[in-house]
Amino acid sequence: MFTGIVEELGEVTAVEQLAEASRFRLRGPVVTDGAKHGDSIAVNGVCLTVVETADGEFTADVMQETLNRSSLGTLHPGSRVNLERPMALGGRLGGHLVQGHVDGTGEILSRTPSEHWEIVKVALPAHLSRYVVEKGSVTVDGVSLTVVEAAADWFTISLIPTTLALTTLGIKQPGDPVNLEVDVLAKYVERLMAAGSLRTDPLTAKEDQQ
Fold this sequence. Notes:
Helix content: 10-25%
Number of helices: 4
């Protein structure tokens, strides 16, 4: 589980194409400090398992399913990436609950700079539209953000100077893909409500039998 508060702006140093998978090597001295085989690190919001670490770098195998559902397949040596280690139980939850399980990809549509922040408009896939609401939370490339406006096929986010300087959102341009993860609590509520509408209320059923 992650919080969407990026710890480090890392870099892809190598990409090896495997059979229906890819092996990435990434530089991240902060997130690899104390990391070992089997640990998790979020890369642009995608939870990956560490294969090995050495000299401030780590490798991770990315299966085809992940490549199909995220923008990791567009990365190449030199690409900058957002890195975050899992949250520690008992620590502060700085962003919101993030699983590192990408729900889909969007695209940067526009950037509107102002004196103290920048408004970024992101295309929203139809199947995720109902989960993104004004003032709600959304994860974009692993960054926990508050939605400013939400339409049927797009939403906007407001980026402060710190986010622009310390994450890849400061260098993404219109046309660039981004990984999206919606609030998992919204998905659970939807599922439970749908299941509940199909059940018979035991109290009502008992009354009907009398």
